[in-house]
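Lab notes, practical 5.
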Amino acid sequence: MSSPAATAPTGAAPKEGKKRRGVGKMLYQVRAVFKRGGRSKPAPSAQAAAPEPLMSQPPAPAAAAPKRREYEGATKIPRLQIHEERAKKLGSRFGLEIKPSEWHSTEGDVLRVEKSVRMRIHRECHQCHSAFGAGNECPSCQHKRCKNCTRYPVKRSDSEREANRTRREAIIRRNKENAPIIPSYDYSEKIILKRPGKTGGQDLVFKGKPRMRVRRHCHMCNSLITAHSKQARTCDNCGHRRCADCPRNPDAKKKYPYGYPNDEPGTTFKGVHACHECKKKFPANAEDGTECRNCSHKKCADCPRVKPRKVEPEPDPDILESLRLRMEALRTVDV
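Output from the prediction step:
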């Protein structure tokens, strides 16, 4: 008969297992797994460990080197050759100029396997219009593939293949002859536009928008005022500073009614002044004391001169009236 002290430890074990919950239970299971994995295997018996002295075993063969994978029909070619072929095909098709060295790395060799060109063919069941898979049976209606089932792409005859090949060659030739213009935004070098001359001589060079040479002569001594004079806008012969009276060739008084820019007021044309109160312009060469048509202010020394600038000429009222009469004549009378 067992004593109660001996039975106490056995009864305490299930109570402790019941108390383990949550994180403590998980840690207990992990520790049990590590203890189970750390047990050592039983040592081999003496008979199994003892070598057989009578039987002579042949020496173990040396570890063979890893066998290199071989491809049937593969040829070794430089990588640069492949990139050159791809660049040439893209250039002939799209009219581009591609440098293989700027595209990919061209170092080393590669293996090329020559294979026939194949096309993926799709077939559709003519009964339920479902696509066939790898087999010859429709996955929806179990219909076996027949000649009535749709094939894509449609099988072409030899004449159609030849016509397609001819059309493709014509497109490639046209793209090569009429290559698209690729814009370049590199302005480091000066771009010179040329075209061959009509007589076959020297090429014609585009020098920009045609401009007319403007000449100014001094109205005092009738000498040419050049841009390379000792003083800017000053006559080298008499020292006269260019003014509004110095003639301009060609004349552009309609574009510059207030005088030419950077000209001094002259004796004949003194410029156009504006009223300093209402900003209304006085007539050209108006003397001091001239009354303003807007505010009746008399021109004084405070009235500033209008800055010479280019002005778009106003349309002639006579021309506008003639246009209005012509439009009236073209109108139809409503019945």
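Observations recorded by the TA: The CA atoms of residues 129 and 149 lie 9 Å apart. Helices lie at 4-19, 23-37, 46-49, 79-94, 158-177, 317-330.
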